[in-house]
């Protein structure tokens, strides 16, 4: 498994993994009409195009995991953060067939230094993701929100 910085050539693969990751992770939490919308992947392509080409996102870090030349995972973070002024993880998805391979931790480390304090929001319930983040020193800090009918909890990792 190769983990490397994302580049604009990766946009189609990033969009596909982002959509498939949502479908595998959030079926039953998000409405099927959102997950199955034929415009979902084109919207993700526009999102990743902006992230990888728009100067407004220049400080963001994006990484991909490749297996046999195919993108199977992604991560996105802002090292400056927005919420607490510390690095914030926005997305980390690994296709189900590759979960448990160690690629998730490598993706996380590729976008946020493992010794840095960091924050993220994770859907609740999402026990597998929450367990993964706990293994990577994140703990729920009591903050929660509901967006689009989905409850999310904030998890925080102290500096090493």
UniProtKB/TrEMBL annotation:
Domain of life of the native organism: Bacteria
GO molecular function: acyltransferase activity, transferring groups other than amino-acyl groups
Keyword Transferase: yes
Keywords: Acyltransferase, Transferase
InterPro entries: Acyl_CoA_acyltransferase, Bact_Acetyltransf, GNAT_dom
Domain called N-acetyltransferase: residue spans: 1-160
One Pfam family this sequence matches: Acetyltransf_1
Record's protein name: GCN5 family acetyltransferase
Upper taxonomic lineage: Bacteria, Bacillati, Actinomycetota, Actinomycetes, Micrococcales
